[in-house]
Amino acid sequence: MKSNSLFKGSLNTIILTLLKQNDRMYGYEITQKVKEMTSSDLIITEGALYPALHKLEGDGLLTVSIEKVGNRNRKYYQLTENGKTETVNRLNDLKDFIEQMQLILNTKLATQ
Amino acid sequence: MKSNSLFKGSLNTIILTLLKQNDRMYGYEITQKVKEMTSSDLIITEGALYPALHKLEGDGLLTVSIEKVGNRNRKYYQLTENGKTETVNRLNDLKDFIEQMQLILNTKLATQ
DNA sequence: CAAATATACCTAAAACTCTTAGGTATCAAA
DNA sequence: TTTGATACCTAAGAGTTTTAGGTATATTTG
C-alpha cells in the first residue's frame, strides 16, 4: 500500500490539531482516533507519540491532568494558550509546504 | 515567515520529480530551480542535497555523467527506469499523505 | 586589479524525528 | 486462565536534515 511513515513534523501537527478539535485527550485515545479516521492507513506508534507529548508539554504547549479510571491512570492533555497559537502556526506551515510542493511538482496534490 | 525545514522524505520526491520534468540536471541547478520556483521560500541546502543524490544513485534510481564546462566538472543526473517507477510511487505517497492529513485535520489543505 | 560574489562540488558532526523492540500493569473477554 | 485490549513508558538504532565547514573556478563589482 504505502510507506506507513509520517512526514517530518506532521506528528506534532496531528497531536495539536486533534487537541484543538477535542479539547482534551489522552495518549492512547489519540492513537486510536488517528487509526479510526484513516481506516488504519496511518498508525501512530506509541514510541513516537509519548516522547512527542512529553516534549510538547515541556515546551509549554500542553498541560496534563491525571485522572484515575478504575485502577489505572489516564493522562489527559490539553492545549495551553501558547499551544493554541502554535497549532495555527503548524497548520499554516503545512499549508505552505503543500503549496510549495505544488509549485515544484507542477501538480495538484489534493483532490478538489 | 515559515520554518524553512523540509518535511521528511520530501527532498527525494522533489529531486526525482524535477528530473522527470527536466530529463537531466546537476546538483547546483536543482538548488537554484527550487529557490526560483518557490520565490526563495524553500531552500535546498547542499549538505542535504549531495548526500541524497549519492544515495539515489547508489539505490539505482539515478545515473551520473560528468561534463566539463570551462574548467569545472558538472555532474548531470538522470532517472533510470527504476527511478521513473519510483518517482510515480513517491508522488502517490505524497498524495496519500495529504489525503490522510485532510481526514485527520478535517480541513482542506490545498486550494482548489 | 583586487576583492567579493556566484558557481560547483564535497564531507562530518550534531540535531531531530521516527521505528523497532522492548517493559510494566490493569481490565475484559474467550 | 490466558489472550487481547487498554494505558503508560523508555532506549537503541535508523534515517533525514541542519549547521558548519572545505576546495576550486568563474564572474562581477568597487
Secondary-structure map:
2 copies of one chain form a homodimer.
Chain A: H1 10-22, E1 24-26, H2 27-37, H3 46-58, E2 62-69, E3 72-79, H4 81-105
Antiparallel strand pairs in A: 1-3, 2-3
The first copy, chain A, binds a DNA duplex (30 and 30 nucleotides) through helix 2, helix 3 and strand 3.
Mean pLDDT over all positions of chain A: 90
The outline of chain A comes out as: globular
Instruction: Look up the CATH topology of chain A.
Output: Arc Repressor Mutant, subunit A
N-to-C CA distance of chain A: 23 Å
Query: What proportion of the residues of chain A is helical, as a percent range?
Result: 55-70%
Q: What is the percentage of strand-forming residues of chain A?
A: 15-25%
Widest sheet, order of strands of chain A: 1-3-2
H/E element sequence of chain A: HEHHEEH
Low-confidence stretches of chain A: none
Q: Biggest β-sheet of chain A, characterized? A: 3 strands, antiparallel
Largest interface: A-B, 40 and 40 residues
- Structural category of chain A is alpha+beta
User: How would you describe the oligomerization state of the chains in this entry?
Assistant: homodimer
Q: What is the CATH superfamily classification of chain A?
A: Winged helix-like DNA-binding domain superfamily/Winged helix DNA-binding domain
* CATH domain class name of chain A: Mainly Alpha
Report a brief summary of the structure.
The structure is a homodimer of 112-residue chains. By secondary structure, chain A is α+β, with helices and mostly antiparallel strands. Chain A has helices at residues 10-22, 27-37, 46-58, 81-105, and strands at residues 24-26, 62-69, 72-79.
